[in-house]
């Protein structure tokens, strides 16, 4: 699977994306006209991402959001009661959307499962970059109960990596020098780098497929080399 194939198969239009967002939280919105609501929500979400990137979500006020969207305060309240609720909705929707996509990942081939998961995550973060960037950067501003949900969402992907690695270790395709949990914990920051520091890879002319390939070379070299690392460890003791 490459990014071009993934893009054609899974890239939602903005209207499709926000339409699903509306469906997920429709019961909480005062506006029930879906066409009108999707139009307004698109404006609200886009402005939120823009303001958050320029000054951080923590420093953004609903009045600023009202000015940026040309939607009155009363109009905003028809969709959200406060900005914290908006942040929670964005986090919950991204997790909901990602889970649907990850459930489609082919896990029948032990050798390919880990790569399929990694490529799906990186490709998804590319087509939904503003959503991923917001969720990562603003998770620190959530309250205690909401942070628990964000952590749960973070661990959802990590759990999938763990299962794929354990499957490879059980079949002896991967070595078990490190636990699957430790390996998965090291992999996640590598994936974050793509959507947090896109400028770096653009500057170095590294495509998204090249990025995924480099991660897999890095990971597979460690997971499928049973002797070199243990020998190094023995020599340092």
Give an account of the 3D structure.
There is one protein chain. The protein folds into two domains: 7-82, no CATH class; 88-225, Orthogonal Bundle (Tetracycline Repressor, domain 2), CATH 1.10.357.10. It is mainly alpha-helical and 237 residues long. The model is unreliable at 227-233 (pLDDT under 50). Helix content is 75%, strand content 0%. The protein has 13 helices and no strands.
Q: What name does CATH use for the topology of the largest domain?
A: Tetracycline Repressor, domain 2
Order of helices and strands: HHHHHHHHHHHHH
* Low-confidence regions: 227-233
What is the first-to-last residue Cα distance?
42 Å
CATH class annotation of the largest domain: Mainly Alpha
Largest sheet, if any?
A: none
- Beta-strand residue fraction: under 5%
The CATH superfamily of the largest domain is known as Tetracycline Repressor, domain 2
Rg calc? 20 Å
Mean pLDDT: 89
Would you kindly provide a brief summary of this structure?
The chain is an all-alpha fold and 237 residues long.
Tags for this model:
single chain, 237 residues, Tetracycline Repressor, domain 2, 2 domains, 13 helices
Topology readout:
Elements: H1 3-10, H2 14-25, H3 34-55, H4 62-69, H5 73-77, H6 83-102, H7 110-127, H8 129-138, H9 144-170, H10 180-196, H11 198-203, H12 208-223, H13 228-236
